[in-house]
Write a structure and sequence with these properties.
81 residues; 2 helices
């Protein structure tokens, strides 16, 4: 199961980077196709809103790849420091 978690970590990194690159390509193409203020604002907001989501997926994937989720607590008593 830990091996699956590690490889899913890589999967999330690839998904985050690829979807954000597709979003940027699409936004640039849409802005160049119709150069108006509302189009620029709309696609800029899409790119700005999705950036923290993509960064979070990359961080999650990196932690999974490094093995941070290998031993998850089963009960709340295991969480105590």
């Amino acid at each position: 199961m830990n091996t699956i978690k590690k490889y899913l970590g890589l999967f999330w990194i690839v998904v985050a980077v690829s979807t954000y690159s597709v979003l940027l390509k699409t936004s640039i193409a849409q802005i160049n196709a119709k150069l108006t203020a509302d189009t620029i604002i709309q696609w800029s907001i899409f790119a700005i809103i999705f950036l923290p989501i993509a960064i979070g997926l990359v961080i999650f994937g990196w932690l999974a790849w490094k093995g941070a989720y290998e031993q998850l607590p089963v009960s709340s008593e295991e969480v105590k420091d």
